[in-house]
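Hi support team,

I submitted a single chain yesterday and got back a structure, but I'm not sure I'm reading the token output correctly. Could someone confirm the output below corresponds to the sequence I sent? I've pasted both exactly as they appear in my results page.

Thanks,
R.
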Amino acid sequence: MTFNDLKKIHDYLWEIPKSFRKDMQVPARIYADEKMLKDIFRDESMAQLVNMTTLPGIRKYAIVMPDVHEGYGAPIGGVFATDPEEDGIISPGACGYDISCGVRLLKSNLSVEDVKNKLEDFATQLQRDVPSGVGRGGPLRLKDPDLDKVLLGGAQQLVESGYGEQDDLGHQESNGVLEGGDPSLISSHAKNRGRDQLGTLGAGNHFVEVQRVDEIYDLEVAKSFGLSKDQVCIMVHTGSRGFGHQVATDYIRLMMQVMPKYGIKLPDRELACAPFNSPEGQRYFKAMKCGANFAMANRQMITHFVRGAWKKVMGENGGSLSVLYDVVHNLVKLEEYEIEEGKKPVRLVVHRKGATRSFGPNHPEVPEAYREVGQPVLIPGSMGTSSHVLVGSEQGMKEAFGSSCHGAGRTMSRHAALKVVRGETLKKDLEAQGIVVRGGSWRGLAEEAPIAYKDVDSVVNVVHNAGIAKKVARLKPLAVVKG
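Hi R., thanks for writing in. Yes, this is the structure output for that exact sequence:
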């Protein structure tokens, strides 16, 4: 594939026509500007995008967001929907290994001026109180009955157990729980991997970051979200840890075994799938919900730890930390969309892998406090750069299955980053910018260097200019804690 194979729809949207390859069931669409397209062709993400268009039951088109990069089977940044009534499939690889990885943003009542003298202490306390690092466990070790309650109840179970406030749940996607999970479909290996990981950050690109509101783009929406200039916020980015990874591994293996039974032939076995309404498809869907609930509970527990650290360092005058929103970017959900203009919306199996749900105004699943303006969309940047708060749009609902980008997107592998970046040097560079850094290892810092990622501002500008989500505010880091 070359640039000449693309059809330009507008400056920020391109299409690979269905005629490009004979096995394509629908066209493929790419949200990007012309400069980004040149980088996108460097890896296999475009081939993976085309492969998604061959999946049974796919409707309308397959999409990638501007932060797209090569993934397992499906590209990271990929979105597509299948029709369960037309033999539409469900694919674990197109959900991702880190099931329900997502972002939560906490708001304080303090400004940068209020916290500047306590920032170092707060970052140190966060590192102490929020367990992080590869394979690192937390203070809880759940036995099966308690773990099963979390797999069924998600963040709701944590709040009921005293690790949060009822108001937290009203500011989360799906109110902090996906109903219909079945812990009996989870392997003992997966349960053992997750048993002590509730409330842990992990490693990779996961973090807790103290941020300031640097710029407001939409005053009205920012006011609805409770954001103001120089306000201090805390962003949490993590997912389902080893538990979700094992669930994905188990069910990818199962799907590879059963595809011949359903006559499914794919250009890439990593897209292994089964019909959504098949026994195997439903088993994965219910197991995936358990993974999602574990991840939402994980971010809820980390919130509890962050609040504890805040109180220890800021004292009674620090006030409370409230949840602005918690949104997921690796998930499969049943949602309704209008496929043909003027016709009744149909229920579809929407896969988002490295893509954020971004529902527009007046959608019933948007929290009541935000319903008039639309759903908050949280976009973390690479370490030391900016993060963004966007809002979902009607156009995104019509054109992109209510989806947006999920971050900056890698341009360099972790291995490649280690060849050109030293963790010690990166830490000094960030601290020279006034950013407090707490990292578990020099290697971990180097792997997540900003040079390994796209420019998040450019990524966000694409989705904003394309109209599928709109900019509300930009956040700049004050302190970052990584595994």
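A quick pointer for reading it: The chain has a mean pLDDT of 95. Let us know if anything else looks off.

Best,
Support desk
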